[in-house]
Amino acid sequence: MQSITLAALAKINLSLRILAQRPDGFHEIETLMAPITLADELEVSHCTESGIRFTCNDPELPAGSENLCVKAAKAFFESSGVEHGIAISLMKKIPHGAGLGGGSSDAAAVLKGLNELFGHPLVQEELQQIAATLGSDVSFFLGSGPSWCRGRGEILESATSLPERRILLVKPPFSVATPWAYKRFAELKNTALILNTEIPQYIGEIKVTNDLEFPVFEKHMILPVMKSWLRGHSGVESAFMTGSGSTMVAILAPFLSDREVAVLRNQISTEFGSTFWVTETAFSAL
Predict the structure, then answer these.
(1) Which of 40, 106, 137, 211 is the catalytic position?
(2) CATH topology for 3-158?
């Protein structure tokens, strides 16, 4: 095998609770993450030159040692003892800074791709150990299907299957830095301002919640306006922010026709402007 191509799926958080702050500065979390069909495309191939070559269609992404795909490859080689030149080609379709886990998914795809390419020198537990060092969401993308993720995100428990639903993702023309969102949440968590009085939303028996909505909504006031607008639409079952944002998620009612979904997409663009990125996706198995 000279190369392998993988789909690096995005995710959405159906529930995200921020718990106690850890001694290492990170927060304990409890989150239900679900993979969706929106995906980057990543190819890993043998290379006659030594080292790691990384290319991407998105010029805004760093291509050097700070890139998460490159970090994942280096960690794989250090753990496996494999010495070989490789080339990583990434076609980005998941926007970054969006709360959709694109970078973490890409890193997990590199780990899975390299392990396949070199004949499985590492078992799943070893890949999970590497993943936990790379980022909080990387472990999830090595799993399969929706999962409850705890600790920093590396402790996984399979969740029940989700109902089939069409989903609209709406990302405004700005991103949210995850460290800032957590820091601002910590500053606000003991104040009365963070009390949530809105009517609860559910997907099946799952209560939809995101503790990071308040700090992010406080700064980016277009997002609560969009959430309220989406929740008021008869074709939307639930609307919420995923992760630390800035993407808003609209879970669509199953009775909507293709035409009605197209109308809703046009209404979003008309209401909020053409700079808002809107795409349709659905729940998926990893």
Answers:
(1) 137
(2) Ribosomal Protein S5; domain 2 (3.30.230)
